[in-house]
Amino acid sequence: MRHLRVALIGWGAISRRVVALLSERMRRDIVIVAVAVRDIEAPRDGLPEGALLITRPEELGNIDCDIVIEAAGRCSIESWGTVALTEGCDFVISSTSAFRDDALRDRLTALAEERDCQIIVPPGAIGGIDALAAAAVLPLDSVEHLIVKPPAAWRGTPAEASIDLDAIDKVTTFFSGSARQAADLFPQNANVAAISAMAGVGFERTRVTMVADPYATRNGHRIVASGAFGKLDVTIENEPLATNPKSSELTALSLIRLLENRVSPLVR
Ligand SMILES: NC(=O)C1=CN([C@@H]2O[C@H](COP(=O)(O)OP(=O)(O)OC[C@H]3O[C@@H](n4cnc5c(N)ncnc54)[C@H](OP(=O)(O)O)[C@@H]3O)[C@@H](O)[C@H]2O)C=CC1
Ligand SMILES: O=C([O-])CC(=O)C(=O)O
Predict the structure, then answer these.
(1) How far is the CA of 93 from the centre of ligand 2 (A)?
(2) Distance from CA of residue 84 to its chain's centroid?
(3) Is the ipTM beyond the 0.90 threshold?
(4) What is annotated as the active site (predicted)?
(5) Taking the complete model, does pTM exceed 0.90, yes or no?
(6) Helix, strand, coil % (nearest 5) of the chain?
(7) What is the pLDDT of residues 138-176, one digit of tens each?
């Protein structure tokens, strides 16, 4: 039986949900060996039994782990990714908006190649990424990504500068631009734009629209692509995570799929 030793960067909504699901699913073959936090003194509950609490990327060097999963925020990508890859661990990223920075992406990719390990971008909160990436083997004409969330999910973001989130009574579009602009301006809501961009036609050519919908209760994504392969149109409505309405439950589920595939004799 394969075993997987995992370090989690961040102890927020996604990490907590991943750990709860692994426990519910009794995955004794997937062990959380470390959890990275910023403030070691802060009170926190639910940590996986036996996991070491760490605060500095260098501490990964003292831990025997196979894979490091970032679920913290884009500021953590460079420091934790550099050490994880240098230590020969695969590095899974949730804060994919960090990769709107081509130089950072190139630096980490070169390091992964040098250390013979991988940076993994899971589909996160969206579906159809396997099909989009496969379609991109042949020329693509266009990729559009529509993000629709309830007003509460846009609080504390630049959306507040263009619309009154408390007052809107109809579906309101407040952003239209490239995936690079979307990922740059909305690091807590448009990581998915970076995922669809990297799977398809890149950060400049992927067009993103963001919408606040006062009647929505879920986080919605629609990806429409066309090209030599044909046409793709994928729509998904995600339940938000209980402890962070900006993030969708599917992001944690996608990490469970990734981890379970790493230990399973049948990858699906
Ligand atoms: N790829 C995708 O499809 C999706 C990606 N995301 C992204 O995933 C990331 C995690 O999301 P979520 O769990 O909902 O976010 P939360 O805000 O719930 O949790 C993030 C946690 O990370 C901690 N943190 C921040 N920086 C660091 C650091 N440098 N080292 C250690 N811990 C750190 C914070 O701790 P504290 O502030 O207490 O120190 C917080 O507890 C976010 O960037 C989010 O935008 C979200 C949804 C979809
Ligand atoms: O969870 C979602 O629906 C998408 C999200 O927050 C992100 O891409 O950052």
Answers:
(1) 13
(2) 17
(3) yes
(4) 221
(5) yes
(6) 35, 30, 35
(7) 999 999 999 999 999 999 999 999 999 999 999 999 999
